[in-house]
Design a protein that fits this description.
The protein is about 50% helix and about 15% strand. The chain is built from 10 helices and 6 strands, in the order βαββαααααββαβααα. A 4-stranded mixed sheet has the order 1-5-4-6. The longest helix is centred in the N-terminal third of the chain and has 32 residues. Destroys radicals which are normally produced within the cells and which are toxic to biological systems.
Length: about 240
């Protein structure tokens, strides 16, 4: 069975262009000195009310997670892009290098959360439909075995990070991976992100305290399998799927 885990470590820093391909973006004015137009990340609206995922995820968590944490990633990513543009225009190699960590962390935070919100739904839960379920059964043995492996990966993340179900273009298989902090899956592993579980404490602490396994067990009740399957279909067909 093809179910080996990957970790987002030791990979090259993502470029601004690669990140921006997966963002909600709009042009910024006043960027004439940059080699290419600066793009501005935009905080997306949630496709449901903050209370819609209760009792699995409380309205307080959703509001704080979206309005504060995700918004901070967006603002800091935009600031880092401006810093990069100025460094590029000035030809300052050290400044260009220095801003890469901020781009990776905050740009990755925006990419990851933009996927995460759509991966959840008040009408979620249960099992995926036939197309995705067949792929899961082929690559993990059964849906229950996949859930066990994905849950174990999420619970086992040390510190803060994400557990992902990704699509491996080279093997045409589904694959579980974990990423530290806000490392974006595709830019750091090449896997197409299909389903992400955020295991930063801000995603669950107000409700589940430090009992991450309970949060991971509960989140399956609101997984939007239609969105996950659509992402797999887009990946297999070569379409571009924005976060």
């Amino acid at each position: 069975l093809f179910s080996s885990n990957m970790h987002c470590i030791g990979s090259k820093l993502p470029s601004v262009v690669r990140l921006c391909q997966r963002l909600c973006i709009q042009p910024l004015s006043g960027a004439a000195q940059a080699p290419q137009p600066i793009v501005k990340a935009v905080l997306p609206d949630l496709p449901y009310d903050y209370s819609a995922l209760e009792p699995v995820i409380s309205a307080d968590i959703m509001r704080l997670h979206h309005q504060k944490h995700h918004a901070t990633y967006v603002n800091n990513f935009n600031s880092a892009q401006e810093t990069l543009a100025a460094a590029l225009a000035a030809g300052k190699a050290s400044d260009i290098i220095a801003v890469q960590a901020a781009l990776r962390f905050n740009g990755g935070g925006h990419v990851n959360h933009s996927i995460f919100w759509k991966n959840l739904s008040p009408q979620g839960g249960g099992e995926p439909s036939r197309f995705l379920l067949e792929a899961v059964n082929r690559d993990f043995g059964s849906f229950s075995k996949f859930q066990e492996q994905m849950s174990a990966a999420a619970v086992g993340v040390q510190g803060s990070g994400w557990a992902w179900l990704g699509y491996n273009f080279k093997t045409d298989r589904l694959q579980i991976a974990t990423c530290a902090n806000q490392d974006p899956l595709k830019a750091t592993t090449g896997l197409e992100p299909l389903l992400g579980i955020d295991v930063w404490e801000h995603a669950y602490y107000l409700q589940y305290k430090n009992v991450r396994p309970d949060y991971v067990k509960s989140i399956w009740k609101v997984i939007n399998w239609d969105d996950v399957e659509n992402r797999l279909d887009q990946a297999k067909s070569g379409g571009v799927k924005l976060a």
